[in-house]
Amino acid sequence: MERVEEDDPKQNNVKTWPKGGLVTMPFIFSNEICEKLAVVGFNTNMISYLTTQLHMPLTKAANTLTNFGGTASLTPLLGAFISDSYAGRFWTITVASIIYQIGMTCLTLSAILPQLRPPPCKGEQVCQQATAGQLAILYGSLLLGALGSGGIRPCVVAFGADQFDESNPKEATKTWKYFNWYYFVMGVSILVAVTVLVYIQDNIGWGWGLGVPTIAMFLSIITFIIGYPLYRHMDPAGSPFTRLLQVSVSAFKKRKLAMVSDPNLLYRNDELDASISVGGKLVHTPDMTFLDKAAIVTEEDTVKPGQAPNLWRLNTIHRVEELKAVIRMGPIWAAGILLITAYAQQNTFSLQQAKTMNRHLTKSFEIPAGSMTVFTMVSMLSTIALYDRVLVRIARRYTGLERGISFLHRMGIGFMISVLATLVAGFAEVKRKEAALAHGLQDKAHAIIPISVFWLVPQYSLHGIAEAFMSIGHLEFFYDQAPESMRSTATALFWTAISVGNYMSTLLVSLVHKFSARADGSNWLPDNNLNEGKLEYFYWLITALQVVNLIYYICCAKLYTYKPIQIQGKDSESEGDAGVELASKV
């Protein structure tokens, strides 16, 4: 838990404006909007930039994007650690935004200056690939972007929630509404990126296509800093990772001790845990008892009243239960990885499919291939609205739950829809290749096949619906089940699942490309001509893996135990006023 900075009261009649609240949202959301414009505007169509401007082979370009996408989703752990331990959220967001700005500026310059990219292809000649120096600028820019995202992603959501005082009944409900606003704003900014920015990149030029989000990011940094006097600022309260490590070390040091017969003999210190258990203390659970040894008091651990113990030898049962809660979340966290692997194909192979199909709405207007993800975003936003306004009310009648269904059920529905999405994607690829063969275009890699790109809409839309259920349910799960002192870090854990999912995509693509290669040069995932590949087999392989993953998830969800919290009555300090409830806002 973190302490709010409060100004000293003035002994005069000067009226002080209350900090936080709705007035801060434009400043915070502007930063998030521009970050999403940049990330999605770059990533959605970046494979086209790498293959057409830097002349990368398709599989290398796909792996480059998923590698840096994975890195960008892993760095939030670093950003959360710095924020919680040293800098606080405001300064972490500010510095990370500046780092991101530098990376965007470098990438934009590489698109504008001819010497920073290889010369255009001439006719049927073999295209010259980017030099080591040109690739170094590209990789450096992407790395700076990944580091910047690491500071922005885990902090913006939590910093926005910080602006509402949950102890104030009038503001408590606004916290959950804030998450709805956050997803809506994020969705709208992604829609703009996959439509307006991609159109600019394809029809006006990459200089403007990358320059617009770069300028927008610069303006958002200025706006965010201007809002500084209005924000409620939190002091960093120490890294939760340190506490988890202290419990692990304490348990290891006492591994040879016999377990106490009565859990009530385990160490408790309400004063020590006060700042990290405002919402209630975690109650002892009978599983993972080897960790309980960290709370066994020995002669060496004798602590004088009012004195803190050596936390590398002795920890409270609340801190032990924090580690248990994190461990319990692990299997559910892992289940979300493969959905991200499936989702990642939209910005690589699905986009390449779209580039070979008829994308004309009219004779003069053609949908950019990179804008196909607009169908994903529209279906996701529509599903969120339908879920909140209709499905929850219907489900509530049968389940009696305020949220209609639990976040574990919500995630399960998302997994099932994702299975259907990749299954449908395989059949769409079969249809596309049949059209290419029927028109004698199978050997022509860059020819436009006379089949409508709208054959791809079902797979894009199903991925959007799956995300509305699974990804938001996943984030709700982390926020609800994480120890209260780790809720700012919970968002980072959410992003690590995305990171590993992207890396899994890279590994899967590389393995399939290697082991499906034949002596005649054929491959499931060819480098140059998708018409000669077996992309449908790759989609169905992911489908099969997702079916196995769904069975695994169902088993994990059935066995999952919600964290129990002891809630102390506000009007009494007696044990009789304390109650135990499962921490599940469902």
Helices and strands, with pairings:
Blueprint: E1 3-4, H1 25-52, H2 58-74, H3 76-87, H4 89-112, H5 132-162, H6 169-203, H7 206-226, E2 234-235, H8 240-253, H9 270-273, E3 281-282, H10 289-292, H11 317-335, H12 337-343, H13 349-355, E4 357-358, H14 374-399, H15 407-438, E5 449-452, H16 457-481, H17 487-515, H18 535-559, E6 564-567, E7 579-582
Parallel strand pairs: 4-5
Antiparallel strand pairs: 1-2, 3-6, 6-7
Give an account of the 3D structure.
- Keywords: Membrane, Transmembrane, Transmembrane helix.
- This is Protein NRT1/PTR FAMILY 3.1-like.
- It is found in: Membrane.
- InterPro entries: MFS_trans_sf, POT_fam.
- One of its GO terms (molecular function) is transmembrane transporter activity.
- The structure is a single chain.
- The chain has 586 residues and is mostly helical.
- It has 2 domains: 17-120 and 127-236, Growth Hormone, Chain: A, CATH 1.20.1250.20; 328-570 and 580-585, Up-down Bundle (Growth Hormone, Chain: A), CATH 1.20.1250.20.
- It is built from 18 helices and 7 strands.
- A 3-stranded antiparallel beta sheet has the order 3-6-7.
- Helix 14 packs across helix 16 (457-481).
- The radius of gyration is 26 Å and the shape is globular.
